[in-house]
Please model this.
Amino acid sequence: MRTLWMLLGAVVPVSALGQEPQQCDYHDPAWSPDSGRLAFYSNRTGDFEVFTIRRDGSDLTQLTHREGSDGGPAWSPDARQLAFTSDRDGAGTLYLMDVATGSVSPVSGTLGRASAPDWSPDGRTIFYEGRADGNRDIYAVDLRTLAVRRVTTDPANDFRPAPSPDGAWLAFQSKRSGTYQLYRVPIGGGEIEALTSGDANSASPDWSPDGGRIVFYSDRDGDGDLYILDVGKREVTRLTMHEALDYAARWSPDGTTIAFVSQRSGENRIFLIEADGSEPVLLVDGCGR
Model:
C-alpha cells in the first residue's frame, strides 16, 4: 500500500503518514529552469529533507535541516525560490525558500494538507494538492494576494497538478472514472477533458517544454513504467521497460532528458533517461547517515 499511495496518490514523506522510514529513499526530482540542477527530497540523512544536485551527479547539497519531513520541491520560473511542503508545523504547509539565502517562509492561506506544488509559468501562482474537507483536490494560491482558488471539486481525489509551459492548461490525475487517469482543464477554469482512459492506471503527468507531449506513469502493460502521450494525436509510446517500478517523471526544460524515480536498484532512486529512450543512468545513490 505504501508503494501504491506513492505512485497513484500524493508522493509525501512516509513519516508524514504516521510511519517511520525503513530505508533510504529519493523522491520527486524537479529540474531547475536552466536544466543544470535537480531538487529532490530524501531521508538519506535521517529525516526527509530537500536536496539539490547537478545533473552530472556532483555537488550534492542539503537545503533543509529541520526536524519533521520536507518534500515536494519545485523551482520558481526565475530559479530564485523553491516551493516545498513540510509538516514542521504539524499541519502540512506550503513553504517558500529563498535559494540564495536559505531563508524559509510559509505561504499563508493554503488550505488542507498541502503537497505536490508546481508553479505557473509566470511565477504568480502555485498549484498544489490540498485536503480542506476530507477530499483531496487541486488548489491554486495567488502569491501576490494569497487568495486561494479551488480548481477541482470532484468527489474523487485529484492529484499532481502540472501547468503547461504556455500557461494555458493544467494537467492532473484523478480516479473519477474508477481508475487513475490523466485530465486537463483550462488553467483559469473551465471544462475538464480526459487525456487517457481504460482499465489501467495513468498518473503523475509532466509536460514537455514545447507543450505537445506529456510523460507519465502507467501500469497498462503490467509493469509500472513511463510513457509519453502525444497530446494532439492522443498517441501513447512506451519510454521505459523494466520489471521494477518507474514513476514520478519530470521533463528537463531543455527538452533533452527526463528524470524519474525507479525501484530497479531495490530502493527508490533517481535516474536520468534521454527523451528518446536511451538507457537510464543512476543520478544519486547511498545514504549519508
